[in-house]
Amino acid sequence: MTTLQNRIRVILLSLLIIAIPLGASAQEELHDPEQQRVTPFQVFDNLYYIGAKWVSSWLLVTDQGLIVFDALYEGHTDILIENIRELGFDPNDIRYLIGSHAHYDHIGGAIKLQQGFSAVTMMTEQDWAMTEQPAVFREYPKPIRHLSANDGSTLNLGRTRLRFLQTPGETPGVLSTSFTVYDNGYPREAFIFGGPSMDFEGVEAAEQYLATIQRLQQIQGIEVHLPVHAEEDDIFARNEMLQNRQDGDPHPFVDPESWAAYLELKARQAQSKLEAERNSAN
Ligand SMILES: [Zn+2]
After folding, report:
1. Which residues in 105-130 are b (16+ Cβ under 10 Å) and which e?
2. How far is the CA of 98 from the centre of ligand 1 (A)?
3. 10, 81, 93, 208 — which has fewest CB within 10 A?
């Protein structure tokens, strides 16, 4: 299948996720790890993609071990672990798992990384609390509560520093992270927006989401957007460009203009969502 077909497929699937209930066959395809398998690939000197077609997972390599962003779920997590090995790394070197938000597709497999590889897991207080409530979309084995990140807090591993932002909306405690990636040694500022989907209900969540987007619009210097769902950015198309990159070509993931355009679009969508929520509340 071509990348374009793949992308259209992923977009259609993600639309279906929002339109609950999901058709049986789309549901099967989404939850079938083999159909969701992506050959893992290197994006920067210190960053790799180890996720599935519809849910992302990023592997950050430091001088003191590995950091995994989002654990995926069920059989997708087993493939994530295989991917780490395929790239030549040892999952026993995972030091931290950073959970973007407490939905099954991001932290459903956290327990496997905790029990199998002693990955210390970080989320916000609010989303740890969510794991103790009935799951929103799909049940998952509850992760063991480890560390909590706050807005403005940091985490160091060797020479790598993660800087956290709490960006509520999709869930009350969405965790976003910024850190430096290197393109042949040249530093670039990367950002994982932990909760881009508007799969929530209610005026308060819509207000929080809009405020989050507006806050992100004020942050200067983000050069690389690393999405938690592949369809939030063109990551597979960008990877194809990366594979064909010639000397002197720009890095296809370094694209601050598309990040700004993405936020503008999100801001408009968030406005209409908020209006809709206010209307239905009246
Ligand atoms: Zn998700």
Report:
1. bbbbbbbbbbeebebbbbbbebbbeb
2. 14
3. 93
pLDDT band at 20 (very low <50, low <70, confident <90, very high): very low
Beta pairing class for 160-166 and 154-157: antiparallel
Asked if residue 175 belongs to a domain, the reply is yes
C-alpha span between 200 and 172 (Å, rounded): 10
Share of the chain above pLDDT 90, in %: 88
pLDDT per position as a tens digit, 158-187: 999 999 999 999 999 999 999 999 999 999
Q: Which residues surround ligand 1, an ion (CB under 5 A)?
A: 105
Q: How many domains does the chain have?
A: 1
- Rounded distance from Cα 104 to ligand 1 centre (Å): 8
Residue 13: inside a domain? no
Whole-number Å distance, alpha carbon 169 to ligand 1 midpoint, is: 13
Rounded to two decimals, the pTM is 0.91
Tell me the residue range of the domain where 271 lies.
39-281
Is position 154 within any domain? yes
Rounded distance from Cα 56 to ligand 1 centre (Å): 9
| 229 alpha carbon – ligand 1 mean position (Å) | 6
The answer to whether residue 5 is domain-embedded is no
